[in-house]
């Protein structure tokens, strides 16, 4: 059950660096026609909007992964600021609730070329035991289903989820609902701090549209070769 997007750039390379020089050195080794890049909290906090502008200047579409979660007005303003930067995708936490999600959606809709707006459901570093520890009684799977439904009802373009939940979400929400999955590790690769992981081929087969991959590419001796190997792995499933 693959996703239905015809987009050929399924891989989003996570630029999880503390230093913008390292991030820019990495993108110099990548090909913007093959992948997009993700800027997260650490890099954005250190480098600021100027780095996003530099990345777009290099031809890369940027997923700004700041997971906004605050009162509706504040999140809406932050999403509008992201849209002003020209990012390709931005995200918010579904746990912020319907009013926050709808305010975020309304804030980006006024842009002629608006970013995709997606919601984080459950962090892939959390398993059922971790959720119970912070007060959630639902399993990770059930909580993801509930938060994804809320995001869809609130008009968001899709969700971030574990690849292990992709098949169920694809069945429930159909081909127009974007599924972005971190926690992807090539077969035989290190699990690192992720708990709910899949290989790239498994994730695409189960309905993921976009795969967020960091260390397996950026930590490889030859990052471009690692990227191309993953592209080859999923090509037969996407076509």
Describe the structure.
The protein has helices at residues 20-29, 41-47, 49-57, 72-85, 98-109, 128-133, 140-153, 166-173, 200-205, 215-218, 223-238; strands at 11-14, 35-39, 62-68, 89-93, 116-120, 158-160, 178-181, 210-213. It is of the alpha/beta class and 239 residues long. Helix 4 (72-85) runs parallel beside helix 5. The longest helix is centred in the last third of the chain and has 16 residues, at 223-238. It is globular and about 45 Å long.
Annotation keywords:
239 residues; alpha/beta; eight-stranded parallel β-barrel; 11 helices; 8 strands; 15% strand
Give the arrangement of secondary structure elements:
Blueprint: E1 11-14, H1 20-29, E2 35-39, H2 41-47, H3 49-57, E3 62-68, H4 72-85, E4 89-93, H5 98-109, E5 116-120, H6 128-133, H7 140-153, E6 158-160, H8 166-173, E7 178-181, H9 200-205, E8 210-213, H10 215-218, H11 223-238
Parallel strand pairs: 1-2, 1-8, 2-3, 3-4, 4-5, 5-6, 6-7, 7-8
Helix pairs in contact: 4-5
